[in-house]
Specification:
Layout lengths: L2 H17 L1 H14 L7 H13 L3 E4 L8 E7 L3 E7 L29 H22 L3 E8 L7 H7 L8 E8 L2 E3 L3 E2 L1 E10 L15 H15 L8 E8 L11 E10 L2 H22 L2 E10 L6 H14 L6 H12 L3 H15 L3 H8 L8 E2 L7 E2 L5 H7 L2 E7 L10 H6 L3 H23 L1 H14 L20
Parallel strand pairs: 3-4, 3-5, 5-14, 6-12, 7-13
Antiparallel strand pairs: 1-2, 2-4, 6-14, 8-10, 8-11, 9-10
The structure holds zinc ion.
The site of zinc ion has 4 residues, from loops.
Amino acid sequence: MRTSTKLSVSRKIDEFIEEKRNSLIDLSDTIWEYAETRFEEYQSAKALADYLEKEGFLVERGVGGIETAFIASYGSGKPVIALLGEYDALSGMSQKDGITNYQPIEEGGNGHGCGHNLLGTAPLAAVLAVKKMIKEYGISGTIRYYGCPGEEGGSGKTFMVREGLFDDVDSALTWHPGSYSGVFSLSTLANYQVYFQFKGTASHAANSPHLGRSALDAVELMNIGVNYLREHIISDARIHYAVTNTGGFSPNVVQSDAEVLYLIRAPQLNQVKEIYERVMNIAKGAALMTGTEVSFKLDKACSNYIPNQTLAHVLEEKMEDFGLPEYTEEEMIFAKAMSQQIKENDKLAAFTEISKVSGEKVNQIREKLGDKPFFEEVFKHQTLNLTLMGSTDVGDVSWVVPTAQFWGACFVAGTPLHSWQLVSQGKTALAHKGMLQAAKVLADAAVELFINPTIIEKAKQELEEEREGAYESPIPREVKPSPLKK
Ligand SMILES: [Zn+2]
């Protein structure tokens, strides 16, 4: 594309998104208020899908047999570019907006602790802008918005990939709201989430304990066994658990049922599988020791993320073109007050992550921030083979389609994900500005791919080279997406 055309595309995207700014902000705020958790995002999915339908997109709801998943398309033929949106919230993250102290709206209620209200709205804004460019420049190809539910502990996209919904997609782009701006260039951990259910025999704990077989004892012994295992697995692996059924509240009854949910993570899926086999053996051992029976139920799984460098460079270029949001004096006062509420350790964690991405020293990054609430630059990424200690279901998309994503600054530097500080900022001008900036970057990058199909070819070739073996869904066919247990 000629430079002058490029410039006019960027300008038009900018203007178009600014024109729509109020209704996009309304949409994001509405989703913030719905705060629906995984696979129950009925109102949020409807709000997004309805908006797209009104704007002339062809919307398919309930795709892949998941009620809150949808795909909105515009255009025809190849290439097919997908922008991914998420909109699920977290339980226990309820928090009032725009304040600098912890104050839940509803004790134990849901909240958008990961900013997915913004995450889902920016690509929607972007596909609308791309539609306008397709029309204006006579571009051929299809732009799609993927409504991806259940990212938080649900692996929604892994199910969507398993159902073949990405089979004809040529490139996928997305972003995540964060506390700095830069390409998401790190890999993530693959994982398995598995329920271990123990079944024993109930009995009177004083009168006939010898007749009882305690399922709760089995859970405890299993956890102890796994604690010993941790020393003998690769250091990048993680094993977490939550006891989801303690067998009741009566100490005078030997517990006949108990359940523990394990989340096993490692850089590669085969490493997760290997650790899972060993955890299974420990569970069997615990059952043997206690005279109980154990059964396993895979809840969900996801693959590691393969960042596509070819596409990442396109995103980075666009991020630099659009730059960072500018804030008013009033916004800066709020940002500074919020920054006081972010612990030094959380800031250090952010600096360490940026250091992994950019290759700069942690101290250098700390100095760059100084006592400001925001970084003043887009961090350039280095092509290093490093892993972020976390998981995302974007991983499974990245195995079948060249995929790139970025962090867009929406919150003050160091704001941790899944925190009240993040929820509180999710409806402020800081977040809105970051979201609209992200929308422009996504739109401009998508248009670039439509106009330069050689980038897509290069990205595909890169994926072929990077991917170790063919993709196999980590979730067996019979497993269905499951909402949060309450
Ligand atoms: Zn998230």
